[in-house]
Amino acid sequence: MRPLDPAKQEKIIQSVFAITGKHGLAGINIADISKAAGVGAGTLYTYFKNKEEIVQSAYFSVEDKMTQKMYEQFDINVPVKQSLKLIYVNMLNYRLNHYNETVFIDQYIQSNYIQLNFSKQMAEYERQNKPLYDLLEKGQKEGIIKNQAPIILVSFFDGAVRSCSTGIVQKLFPLKQQIIDDCFDLLWRGITQ
């Protein structure tokens, strides 16, 4: 059997993002994925069993890329506010520069797809985002961050970044440093003592 071509597999996953960006997650079907990726449906089934597996693979792909970017230059020894802002800006930049992936991940999280392997996905999410969990715990020990369950704080953080990026993409407000600073300050005031 011939080895699978990683470039072709990536093309298939990228086509999922492109279709979602234009038509939403509900608009994804095998025929459109095959056409957008420039591969035959038979070839597509060589790489993935079904549409659900393609969508799951796309989710893990974007989640990996996003979390790698989020924690670039992260250092737990830097003060909590400064570290949290670095993660915030990294995540915001990723969302602004990868619109189709952002649309995909936001719709995926709110769809039934997340329930297919929920416990596995949650465990992987917590593993990938351990730096953020650790930073928030550090802030709690220092008496800076509110004593809330970590998942609540992480969800609040994620929602704040998502809202800011959506506002910028939809041109509700401009992409300016002052806007980014103001949005982060609102988040900071929401999670601090």
UniProtKB/TrEMBL annotation:
InterPro entries: BscR_C, Homeodomain-like_sf, HTH-type_Tx_Regulator, HTH_TetR. Transmembrane segments: none annotated. Keywords: DNA-binding. PROSITE patterns: HTH_TETR_2. Residues 6-66 form the HTH tetR-type domain. Residues 29-48 bind DNA. This is TetR/AcrR family transcriptional regulator. It comes from Dyadobacter subterraneus.
